[in-house]
What does this fold into?
Amino acid sequence: LRFRAVRFSSVNIIMGKHIHRQYGAICSVNSSDHSALPPGRLFCFGLGYTGARLARALRASGWQVSGTSRDAGVMREFAADGISGPSLEDAVIPLGTSHILCTIPPGEAGDPVILSHAKQIGAVQGLVWLGYLSTTGVYGDRGGETVDESDAPAPGNARSRRRLTAEQAWLDLGRAHGIPVQIFRLAGIYGSGRNVLATVRAGTAKRIDKPGHRFSRVHVDDIVQTLMASMAKPRADAIYNVCDDEAAEPAAVVAHACELLGVAPPALEKFDAATLSAMAQSFWAENRGVWNGRIK
It folds into this structure.
C-alpha cells in the first residue's frame, strides 16, 4: 500500500475532526489509490462504528453495499443510504459480491462468522478481497518497546488470544479457497462521538499518572482509507498495523484536549490497578508502541 504520512508536531488529540488530529500520523491514501478502486460490491459482517463508516464512504463512490447488524433500527437507518442487510444469523451474501469485510470480534466459541458462514464465503464466485479487523492487542505487553508486523504476536489476555486464533482462521479460509485475505491490526479507535474532547466536555475525563505508559490510536477515517487502499491493491496473507505514527501517554492526551477547549485539566490521579475495572486493568497491563510503516 502506498500512503502519504502526515506528521503533526503537537499532542495526539483524540477527536472527530481531522484538522485537529495532532501528535502523530494520519495515514491518508494518495489520490491514485482512490482512482484505482472501481465500484464493486461489499458485504460487511458487522456494520458497527467502523464498518458503517466504510459502507457509507463506498456508497458515496458508487458501490453496492450490504451487511449485518444486530440492531434492526440501525438497519432501517442504513436503508435510507441504500445499504441493506439482515442479522448475522440470517445473512446471505449477495451474488456479485467482490469484497467482504468482517469487523465482528470472536467469542469464547470462536469466530462467529467463520463458524456460521465459512462454507458460504468459500463458495462466493469472483471474490477478490477479504478483510478482517483485528487488534494490535495480539502483540501483548512489550514494556514500552515498539512493535511492527515482523514481531511475533504474544497476546497477554484471553480476548487477544481469541483474536489471534481468529486471524489464523481467516487466513486458512482464504488459502483453502484462493481468496486474498488481509488482516488489519487496529489500535484504539477514535472519531466523531468517540474521543477525548467528548469526555472532557462531559466531565468524565481522567488523567491517570503512569509515566512512560503509552498507547497507540487511530482515527476511524484513517482505517477507512487504509481499507480502501487495500481493496484497490489486494495482497493475500498481508498483515497491516493501522495506527497513528506516535504512541502517547493518556494523561498527555487529556491535557491537550483541555488546552484546546480552554478548560483546566483534571488533577492527575495516581495509578492504582486495584481501583480499576477488570477491563481497565487489562487495558493498562500492556505498554507498547506500534509502528505502521507497512501501510505507507
